[in-house]
Amino acid sequence: MPDFYLEQAFAAPLTPAAERSLLQRLAVCADAHQARWRDCLVDGERQRLVCRVEAGDLQTARSAALCSGFTPATWLSTVPGTTTTVTGNDTRAGLVDVLAECRRDTAAAALEVARVRHVCTWCLGALRVEPGPMVMSTDGRRVLAFFRATDAEAVRNSYRRGDLPFDRVVALRRIVQSSPM
Fold first, then answer.
1. Which stretches within the chain are classed as H helix?
2. Which contacts of 102-108 are long-range, i.e. CB under 8 A and separated by 24 or more positions?
3. Whole-angstrom Cα distance, residue 151 to residue 129?
4. Residue 19 backbone class (left: φ over 0; alpha: ψ -120 to 50; beta: rest)
5. How far apart, in whole angstroms, are the C-alpha atoms of residue 144 and residue 121?
6. Helix (H, G, I), strand (E, B) or coil at 65
7. Could you tell me which residues are beta bridge partners of residue 150?
8. Over its length of 181 residues, how does the chain's per-residue pLDDT go in tens digits?
9. Is residue 72 reached through a cis peptide bond, with omega within 30 degrees of 0 on the bond before it?
10. Residue 89 CB: number of other CB atoms within 10 A?
């Protein structure tokens, strides 16, 4: 099944209780709509959430998201050629999830975005940056790139000389069912 990405902003920071409630709703709604929530990542301020949902089609993904309480949510399309999945269940110690965002005045072409993904292979290896999928807004003016890296600064340094300068690079925390109560 294909992956779909959604982004949700919150007016107030998510509390641990709100995260647990969200996880419960995600599980119930995924079962009801034949979808599967793969990853939910929250920023350090706990006001922005990006989730990956696996579903048969976009309408199914949207139905599961609406059932879970995501409204309004921004839907993002996967950039072809960048579908490497970054998982937090690996054994590479010391790596965290990082999100890099690029905002543009004009729409980016998907192939252009995919081309600059590996701008400096040596930099990526030396700084322990593992590129994951890239997604873009429907108008092509926002690109989000997922990474596993030692920290956000490693991603910034890896792409400093690239053709796709990132406007914002932040470390994310994965929301999981075993969150402390």
1. 16-33, 58-68, 110-115, 121-126, 152-158
2. 102/142, 102/143, 102/145, 102/164, 102/165, 102/166, 102/167, 103/141, 103/142, 103/167, 104/140, 104/141, 104/142, 104/143, 105/141, 106/141, 107/139, 107/140, 107/141, 108/136, 108/140, 108/141, 108/143, 108/164
3. 9
4. alpha
5. 19
6. helix
7. none
8. 888 999 998 889 999 898 889 989 999 999 999 999 988 999 989 999 999 999 999 999 999 999 998 877 788 878 766 665 444 444 457 899 999 888 887 776 666 666 666 667 777 888 898 888 888 888 888 888 899 999 999 988 888 766 567 888 999 999 876 434 3
9. yes
10. 6
Q: Strand 74-78 and strand 168-174: pairing?
A: unpaired
Question: What domains does the chain contain, in order, with CATH numbers?
Answer: 3-77 (3.30.70.3090), 96-174 (3.30.70.3090)
Q: Which residues of 141-178 are buried (b: 16+ CB within 10 A; e: fewer)?
A: ebbbbbbbbbbbebbbbbbeeeebebeebbbbbebeee
The token duo for 12 is: 């107030």
Beta bridge mates, 48: 9
Q: Tokens 């949700």 sit at which residue?
A: 8
